[in-house]
Amino acid sequence: MHSHRPETLARGAEPARPGTLHARSVIADISVPPVPGRVVRFGRGGRPDVDLSVAEGDLRVSRRHGELTYREGKWWLRNTGQQLVRLPRGRMMHSSSGPIPLETGYTPLFVRGSGYREHLVELYVTDHDERGGGARQEDATLPPKRWPLDDEERLLLVVLGQHYLLYEECPRPLSYRQAAMELDYVCGEGVWGERRIERKVGAVRRRIERGGDFPYSVLREDDGAGPSDHNLLHNLLRGLVESTTLVPPDLELLDGDVDD
């Protein structure tokens, strides 16, 4: 049966047309035009089983671990392997999961392998405004979206989120009781307490939620369902650190050399 084969991504080639899929692993990269019905397969196997080889030698990765199909104007991702595929924001795909459409731009995915290994597959779908190629190389860099915090809010969130700012594996927030004890040391006893911390954190969460573009949920639903307050605080701190609203130099606030 005749099948369309992706073309290897050429350096310095003409700009790809909108919807072109660029896919890359550690050992291979391909570029595929947006042709209805086109299927791109990736996994441990080689040609003709897959178009993009991933994780050669890792027997936990399936020979055909996933595929992307172009239809309805989008590339649709499906997991066809035995191990999970992890997507941004912690989303997991099982072989029983339905296909999901890729947005234009960059999407990294990780294929579970042996032990703690994860194999990166980078996907990039060309957008309509990218036909100019490198014409915008001289443009100023767009900064990340950051959220305004006053001095008290920043100090409080640095105390609560210090494990996040140390980039520890699987960080969790300090409890309000722990934070109050540390704030007593930084600011003087009696300036902060658990109730004041709770009010301040709640005000930040409500303000950020009203903005509408924070990447994680930070408030409960109206009916009280959803993640616990501790998990919502985790979401808040994670989003603030990932956006560089809070950065490691902020830990200097814990030295006690701040104005009350």
TrEMBL record:
Keywords carried by this UniProt record: Phosphoprotein
Pfam families named among the record's database cross-references: FHA
Listed Gene3D superfamilies: 2.60.200.20
Domain called FHA: residue spans: 40-92
This protein's record includes keyword Magnesium: no
Keyword hit for Phosphoprotein: yes
Protein name stated in the entry: FHA domain-containing protein
Species, as recorded: Streptomyces bingchenggensis (strain BCW-1)
